Amino acid sequence: MTRTEYPWLLPSAMAEPGLMDPEPEVGRPEGDPGRPTSGKSGRRGRGRRRTVRDWVVDIVAFLFAALFGLVIADASDQINQNDGIVLFDQLAGAAACCAIWLRRRWPVHLTIVLSVVTVVSPTSAGALIVSLFSLAVHRPFRPVAMVGLISLVLGAVQPFVRPDPNSTPAASIIAGVIVLLLMTGWGMLVRARRQLVVALRERARRAETEAELRAEQAQRLAREAIAREMHDVLAHRLTLLSVHAGALEFRPDAPPSEVARAAGVIRDSAHDALQDLREIIGVLRAPGDGDGGNRPQPTLATLDALVAESRDAGMKVSLDNRIHDPAAVPAAVGRTVYRIAQEGLTNARKHAPGAEVTVAVDGRPGDGLTVDIANPAPEGEIEAVPGSGQGLIGLTERATLAGGRLEHGVTGDGGFHVQAWLPWAA
Known about the structure:
Helices cover 59% and strands 10% of the residues. By secondary structure, the protein is α+β, with helices and mostly antiparallel strands. A 5-stranded mixed β-sheet has the order 3-4-5-7-6, with helices on one face. Strands 1-2 form a two-stranded antiparallel sheet. Strand 4 (356-364) and strand 5 form a beta hairpin. The chain is rod-shaped.
């Protein structure tokens, strides 16, 4: 989260992200430097330290209350002849001005006390105005309304306890009500603005967090897609290499023609695997090209070539392709069919060598396209072939992303069957 460049120009409640509580607890200290605080849960923490702006505001508020009290004290000195009352009024007003420094820690209690003191000491009115404003800024509506009502009631009593000869009680009451309402409304407006800023800051922080999560998810999906594509492209080629290399290893006395043929298949498969790997790396380096490399992507039309390649590797493959016009199949659907058939032939070559594999493709626009790959159980003991088992999982995800479904499992006779359905729009 980006912080403001000049936090010392902000109130302590907004200098750091997340410090201003939209609905703080009544009576909870705010802005008191280094003092422990306690909330409803009983946990204790550190209070907020005043910023430079807070110190400036506090000094200005103190000077305003003192000046306001001096003006009233001067008027009271001219009206009242009792020196004891004047001295008490001045001492009470000075104490009220000093108490302003506590308004951030105890705004509710201080405002109530000053409301009572102002009834007998008019010089405390300036401190009461500042305290009421601070209360409206730092507390929600309910405590503000309750304390404000108390202040209004006591303010209505004050003209009768300390009457002003130059004004009627009604005029004094109206003036006091207007001043208190104005300061309360101003404080609530400041609070609403601060809460708006805090809400916008929190929204921006959440937006940044969500953007980071989306970026991480996109990277994860991209890695999964790359791994799936690497498996689909390279597993078939590397299996051919393994089959022919194993044949050369176990038949060192094979005729030179068969050795040359196997070596040629190994060379071609290695070349194709490297070419496919270059294509994937090219896509990673320039993802915006969108052509996936110079070589064309496999489609349903290239399924015959895949089967022919497997037959050249010594597999027994029976292809039943009932799609008369492979070019009419959407490229994405055809590519998915190709990858499913490729993975099925690769698995059969690894786990059921020598068994005949049947590949059947059928469908029509509107009904969808089905792919069936089946092989019987292998004969004799088969050497375990290492594998992660992620190929079929990747095919299931690929079919699901294409809007279809894929099922696979062992048949009753010990063979293996893969069936997929893919949508084909009319």
